[in-house]
Amino acid sequence: MARREVICASDPAFAELYADPKAKLATAGMLVHELDAGRIDMAVTAGFAFADPGQIVEQNRAILDSARVSHRLIPLATVNPASPGWRTAAEHALADGARGFGELRPHNQGWDPLGAEGRALCSMALEAGAVLLWHVSEPVGHRYPGKAGGIAPAELCVVAEAFPGLKMIAAHLGAGLSFFLYMAEMRTALRDVFFDTAAWRFLYDERSIAQLVAVTGAPRVLFGSDYPLLSPKGELQRLRAVLPGEAVPSVCGAAAETLFFGTEIE
After folding, report:
1. Sign of the C-alpha dihedral, residues 126, 47, 81, 53?
2. Omega before 103 within 30 of 0, i.e. cis
3. What pLDDT digit, counting tens, does each position of 193-229 carry?
4. Across-strand partners of 194?
5. Banded pLDDT at 264 (limits 50, 70, 90)
6. CATH for 27-261?
7. Is residue 166 within a helix (H) or strand (E), and if so which, with residue range?
8. Which residues touch 106 (CB under 8 Å, ≥6 apart)?
9. How many angstroms separate the Cα of 36 from the Cα of each of 196, 227, 233?
10. Domain map of the chain by residue range?
């Protein structure tokens, strides 16, 4: 956190979100404290989508080291397919315990999710059984720091069609992606896409959660807090209040356990 100004000077996308000293940053220790406060067993952890390979390696090392210290953290590594040597770094991260890659912001980093770089990443993830977490950007609505730079819903549809079996998470309720599930061919194409609830209340009204569960099914909806922007404890309470009762166990843990571990954890 002491290096905030230095990193902001070298990465415009990071600066957009974190140049303001009031913008929250967090350590692994802070996250574990929040898990204790919210009586939450585990958390999927991901860093920022840096463009610089050196910053990516340093961040991945910190995330993976933290996951070894605390088995309550499920690590996702950062990757930039536009940088030389990215594949070697990504393979090292997977060998070191990463469960996948994210949060992916291809247009911030300068690569095309539908181009050669995107295809190479998806092929590698599919072969390794790794999960891809995408920042999905809404094509409409108000602007806010960090909105742009992710993958568009239509682009994610194309990726899903091209790589059946690849497990992917569409962050922030998928930025409207779930609407396409009303199309029969999209129900097939998107069958391995999951949707997280991170920052949902900043974007959508309370009806959105129940509607998402209704169209996707609870096993494909994952609780996400967007910590440190929001408190996991508070967001979990808000989510439970708007979820259909029968969907609570799945959305609030069981679906993520199945996605990352293949079975529910006792």
Report:
1. negative
2. yes
3. 999 999 888 888 888 999 999 999 999 999 999 999 8
4. 169
5. very low
6. 3.20.20.140
7. none
8. 81, 112, 113, 117, 118, 149, 150, 151
9. 21, 14, 9
10. 27-261
